[in-house]
User: Which sequence fits this backbone?
């Protein structure tokens, strides 16, 4: 379970906060859309979950761990329970697809045998078994994002965070990526997707949390996009 | 073990990727450590000379000769009776005085000839111009005043000279040399640390994407840092070996082949001391490089 309790984050003293007294709960296994215009605090919200930043006040609790109090040297252990996917894929261009995915396991000390089977599983999940030996720049954007998702999921995290996962993709490819994220969600993974893609949000009919200027202004169990009211 | 293999592979990769930087780093480490070691050698050498010389200092009691100043030696050259009286006084000072022996003008001249074999000074010195003397070896070289008080006003004594005073002046100059050498040594270590830190920072910067991903998927800071520290240590080991060899050459050639035959009247730094210096130099290089790398990449490990 993810729990934000009166979370405020100010990057600059006296400046307007990036998150302003946000309280929200996300249950295990949910799929949640996080919407809002640029600068609304979405990124800060996600960075909070990755423990890349800490709240100025309030608490963020994930699976019973209070991230504000989590020691620096324990952060790496915690991050193994959270997968993340980004708009720019963040793949290593000099490594093949399977090495990119395996990398995530290698650097946390997974035995070589296990790496092999897990990578094969992840490739199957995202449907890229045939492209395992390719380099990222030989793949389309959608394929690259699948690799990134495979890498985020290969360690079976309990939470998957996706920051504008379809930001660089065409609508048809975006659909596929969303389908993949839904599949992952069905494997008991909490999925949080920050997005500007109104079409997808409206179509999926899932929970929507909207932020604006750091305030949580909407939290609907079955929501649509409509950022900042209908005028946008 | 596997992790070590992976890390070494990364080091090899990094070395190849930036071969000029690698060579520059290794050579700078080698030169810096050599100068550091040389600084330590100069220090030890001065200490060796100090031990040698202070062990041999004596108080010289010069006796009146034919050419002595008449205001000090109104009776002219020392007489046998006066000489005996002075010797008795000196011997009475035992055990403060460890040993007293007599050196005639002829012996003084012999010794002088020996020491200034190739010097033109020799032509201007005759046997008569060198006074006869008592050489007094003290139990504790600082007790000069006791000897001086006892005999300076005795008839037949021209002057009492403490060789320590001469040495002190000499060694205060050498002390400056010692401090200078140590200063250079430390400066070179600072250079090494800064260079290694900078090299590792560049290496980390060029791999910041990889580091970012490692952090994202939960690699520990130690894991991420390890290849960089290992690379710095590898550079330091190679540079350190070069430095150790050069220090060995300094001892073997400069000290033993050049200086030793030229300066007979002192002792020189031994191989044992040289080995110690080699070990210190090597370890200091490796440890400092590791520490420099550790802190240099820290910035890239934040968040």
Assistant:
């Amino acid at each position: 379970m993810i729990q934000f309790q009166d979370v405020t984050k100010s990057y600059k003293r006296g400046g307007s906060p990036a998150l302003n007294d946000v309280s929200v709960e996300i249950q295990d296994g949910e799929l949640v859309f996080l919407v809002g215009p640029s600068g609304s605090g979405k990124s800060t919200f996600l960075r909070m979950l990755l423990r890349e930043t800490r709240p100025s006040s309030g608490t963020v609790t994930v699976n019973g761990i209070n991230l504000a109090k989590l020691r620096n040297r324990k952060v790496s252990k915690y991050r193994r329970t959270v997968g993340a996917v980004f708009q720019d894929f963040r793949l290593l261009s000099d490594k093949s697809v399977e090495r990119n995915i395996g990398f995530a396991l290698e650097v946390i000390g997974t035995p070589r045998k296990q790496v092999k089977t897990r990578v094969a599983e992840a490739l199957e999940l995202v449907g890229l078994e045939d492209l395992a030996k390719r380099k990222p720049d030989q793949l389309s954007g959608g394929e690259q994002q699948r690799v990134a998702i495979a890498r985020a999921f290969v360690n079976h995290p309990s939470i998957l965070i996706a920051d504008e996962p379809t930001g660089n993709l065409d609508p048809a490819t975006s659909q596929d990526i969303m389908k993949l994220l839904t599949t992952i969600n069905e494997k008991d993974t909490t999925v949080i997707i920050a997005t500007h893609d109104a079409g997808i949000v409206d179509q999926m009919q899932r929970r929507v949390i909207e932020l604006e200027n750091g305030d949580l202004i909407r939290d609907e169990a079955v929501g649509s996009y409509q950022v900042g009211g209908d005028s946008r | 073990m596997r992790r070590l293999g992976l890390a070494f592979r990364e080091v090899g990769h990094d070395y190849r990727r930036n071969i000029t930087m690698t060579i520059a780093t290794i050579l700078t480490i080698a030169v810096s450590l050599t100068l550091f070691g040389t600084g330590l050698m100069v220090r030890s050498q001065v200490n060796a000379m100090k031990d040698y010389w202070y062990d041999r200092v004596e108080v010289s009691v010069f006796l009146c000769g034919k050419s002595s100043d008449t205001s000090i030696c109104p009776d002219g050259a020392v007489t046998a009776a006066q000489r005996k009286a002075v010797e008795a006084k000196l011997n009475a000072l035992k055990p403060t005085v460890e040993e007293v022996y007599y050196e005639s003008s002829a012996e003084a001249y012999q010794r002088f000839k020996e020491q200034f074999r190739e010097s033109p000074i020799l032509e201007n010195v005759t046997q008569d111009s060198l006074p006869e003397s008592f050489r007094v070896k003290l139990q504790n070289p600082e007790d000069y005043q006791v000897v001086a008080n006892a005999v300076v006003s005795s008839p037949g004594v021209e002057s009492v000279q403490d060789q320590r005073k001469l040495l002190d002046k000499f060694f205060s100059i050498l002390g400056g040399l010692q401090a200078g050498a140590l200063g250079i040594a430390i400066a070179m270590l600072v250079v090494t640390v800064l260079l290694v830190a900078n090299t590792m920072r560049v290496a980390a910067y060029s791999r910041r994407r990889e580091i970012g991903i490692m952090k994202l998927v939960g690699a520990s800071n130690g894991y991420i840092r390890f290849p960089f520290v290992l690379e710095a240590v590898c550079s330091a080991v190679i540079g350190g070996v070069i430095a150790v060899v050069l220090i060995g050459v300094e001892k073997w050639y400069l000290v033993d082949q050049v200086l030793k035959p030229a300066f007979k009247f002192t002792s020189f730094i031994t191989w044992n001391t040289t080995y110690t210096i080699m070990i210190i130099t090597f370890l200091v290089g490796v440890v400092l490089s590791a520490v420099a790398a550790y802190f240099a990449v820290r910035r890239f490990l934040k968040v």
DSSP finds seven helices and ten strands in chain A. The longest strand of chain A covers residues 2-9. The beta strands of chain A are 2-9, 19-26, 31-35, 57-62, 65-66, 82-86, 159-163, 190-194, 207-212, 215-220.
